[in-house]
Amino acid sequence: MLVLGRKPGEYIVIGDNIKVKVVKSEAGDLRLAIEAPRDVKITRGEVWEEQLRQAK
Predict the structure, then answer these.
(1) Domain for residue 6, yes or no?
(2) Residues 50 and 35: beta-carbon distance below 8 Å
(3) Considering only CA atoms, which of 28, 27, 23 is closest in space to residue 9?
(4) E strands along 1-56, which residues?
(5) C-alpha angle with apex 50: 49 to 52, nearest 5 degrees?
(6) DSSP 2
(7) What range defines the domain where residue 33 resides?
(8) Is residue 1 part of a domain?
């Protein structure tokens, strides 16, 4: 796992076509903007974990 510190307005690029940008950061609350091709599935962590539990 890679852990990075980013400030609002800063971003990271994953591969050649996924951009994750910090758009807001306040006391324990973080908002991200994710720019990716439509065929890339993006799932919130809690939803992904529930799907894993249900698949067992």
Answers:
(1) no
(2) no
(3) 23
(4) 11-14, 18-26, 29-35
(5) 65
(6) -
(7) 11-55
(8) no
Residue 35 lies in a domain: yes
Residue in 50, 39, 46, 1 with CA at minimum distance from that of residue 17: 39
Q: Indicate the number of domains in the chain.
A: 1
The single-letter code of the amino acid at 42 is I
- The predicted pLDDT at position 13 comes to 98
How is residue 21 written in tokens? 């940008």
Question: What pLDDT score does 41 carry?
Answer: 96
pLDDT of amino acid 28: 83
2 in a domain, yes or no?
no
pLDDT in tens, 8-52: 999 999 999 999 999 998 888 999 999 999 999 999 999 999 999
The Cα 7–Cα 40 span in angstroms is 25
Tokens of 51: 């799907």
